[in-house]
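In keeping with the milestone schedule agreed at the kick-off meeting, the structural modelling team has produced records for the first pair of proteins. Each record is given below as a sequence line and a structure-token line. The laboratory manager (R.T.) confirmed that both were archived under the project's standard naming scheme.
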Amino acid sequence: MSTDSTGEYDGPVTEEITVTVNGRAVTATVEPRLKLSDFLRDVCGLHGVRVGCEHGVCGACTVQQDDRTVKSCLSYAVQADGAAIETVEGLDDDGSLHPIQEAFHETHALQCGFCTSGFVMATKELLEENPDPTREEIQTGLAGNICRCTGYQNIYDAVERAGEKLTAETGSEE
């Protein structure tokens, strides 16, 4: 709460922030209590960022901040001031599917789709760190994401296929 020189309430405290979202600078005036997930959805119009539990448990809100996955429902937008945020919408700027998204589609690793964007973003970091993970490493890497529909087998298959696609795309073998 903010007061003027007479002690009268003059509205909520706000801060101007600039965040690079999917390669584009976004400047906005926000209240310090605005969650990063709400900033991305409501200010930036990026509805691939889902809000499920609001406690960081389900992983539906997973995005990358400065190339590390974060649960955007646990962060405030002001904490992202000056940061680079990537959401599922930013994976491919030409409107085509990113190889990770292709792999999820090809292996039927989604049903309702609510959790998919979070899994895709978690998979991106996992495969950047280890392009050929074992099944156990995949399970560990995705442990912060929950799906209530698929039973996970197809999701793990998608991660393996995505790793193969990305390795073939870059032409590198580990």
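The second protein of the pair:
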Amino acid sequence: MPGSGSASPAPRKRADARRNEEALLEAAAAAFVAAGIDAPVRDIAAKAGVGVGTIYRHFPTRADLVVAVYRHQVEACAAAGPALLAGADSPYAALVRWIDLFVDFLVTKHGLAEALQSDDATFASLHEYFLDRLLPVCAELLGAAAGAGEIRTDVEALGLMRGVGNLCIGAGKDPRYDARRMVGVLLAGLRVR
């Protein structure tokens, strides 16, 4: 209704535009794993099956693309928690599987840590976004496993996520170091015996 003062909803993207964006995010994520965040845009476009111009329509700058990939992957990790909890044999099994996804997320962020520490304002809110989205999921999984008597009750989500994160630092730099194995040791230490 014109003149009513109510804001109109944001326009919805066409289905093909949503598919292109999804393909770009997946292709960029794979390219960032293989070559870091400086992967050539033309390679990302080719992998997504779109033209370079399509990337720039969706993501005007490389920083915009990096942020979108990061947020997309955080959202996938956040959405996985409740789904795993609903479908797992036990809350502990759901927690272990979610932490495995979290490890995948952490060890594939080649170059992102440097970008997050840069002076680019585009990256400033990503760490807070990461914590806001993933801490509640981890807390829910921990609470369910503790409530079922499967794990200790004195572990908080932030402590567990930091512990896992610290075990993943440098995972790709030394082939003798197995971050996933060390995270498994950490998770085994949560069990009630």
